[in-house]
């Protein structure tokens, strides 16, 4: 059992590190590495990796990824920091005051991303066995911030991320409909058990 767990952990780390490296290679093939577009796309890719990792954390139980949940959460934070840094360099041209020139909804979406990133900081810092022992029952209370922070990250992504030609209101409507179906399905399944 321990060997299988170790193998899964190695595979998980390989995927968490390998997929971004492969995406970097694809971006290098598609864009000039010294261009502004390359840096923007790089930022977007890491933002999507962060959101994907966060969604996997939330779906860890049904996907049987409970042993990889902590690793996914830490990876999501690292991807978020990389995304933020690359956005600072490419999108904001090394000037945070550039946010003031965005539309109000885009500004609020940026702020949602910042709050999510700051909210994940204590969760990442307390993701160790030592922190769990030191905090006792308060550790679980703190880590219940994960889903609301994930929701903020998703709001940030929906409103200012790459939309593939779909306007943010449509994205939001689609996400809310899917979330409603997911919750309805979960509650119906739970009621059938009792």
UniProtKB/TrEMBL annotation:
- Family annotation (Pfam families): Ferric_reduct
Q: How does it sit in the membrane?
A: Multi-pass membrane protein
- Transmembrane parts of this sequence: 12-33, 45-63, 70-88, 108-125, 145-165, 171-188
Q: Which domain of life is it from?
A: Bacteria
InterPro entries tied to this protein: Fe3_Rdtase_TM_dom, MsrQ-like
- Where's it found, cell-wise? Membrane
Q: Where is the Ferric oxidoreductase domain?
A: 63-153
Keywords for this protein:
Iron, Membrane, Transmembrane, Transmembrane helix, Transport
Keyword GTP-binding annotated: no
**Tagged with keyword Transmembrane:** yes
* Name this protein carries in UniProt: Ferric oxidoreductase domain-containing protein
Q: Which organism is it from?
A: Deinococcus roseus
Q: What is the lineage of its organism?
A: Bacteria, Thermotogati, Deinococcota, Deinococci, Deinococcales
């Amino acid at each position: 059992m321990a060997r299988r767990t170790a193998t899964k952990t190695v595979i998980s780390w390989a995927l968490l590190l390998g997929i971004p490296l492969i995406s970097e290679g694809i971006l290098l093939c598609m864009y000039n590495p010294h261009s502004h577009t390359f840096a923007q796309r790089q930022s977007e890719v890491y933002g999507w990796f962060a959101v994907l990792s966060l969604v996997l954390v939330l779906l860890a139980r049904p996907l049987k990824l409970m042993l990889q949940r902590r690793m996914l959460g830490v990876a999501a934070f690292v991807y978020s920091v990389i995304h933020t840094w690359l956005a600072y360099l490419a999108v904001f041209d090394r000037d945070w005051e550039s946010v003031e020139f965005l539309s109000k909804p885009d500004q609020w979406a940026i702020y949602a991303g910042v709050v999510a990133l700051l909210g994940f900081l204590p969760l990442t810092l307390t993701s160790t066995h030592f922190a769990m022992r030191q905090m006792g029952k308060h550790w679980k209370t703190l880590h219940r911030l994960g889903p609301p922070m994930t929701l903020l990250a998703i709001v940030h992504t929906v409103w200012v991320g790459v939309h593939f030609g779909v306007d943010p209101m449509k994205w939001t409507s689609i996400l809310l409909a899917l979330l409603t179906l997911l919750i309805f399905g979960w509650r119906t399944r739970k009621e059938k058990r009792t």
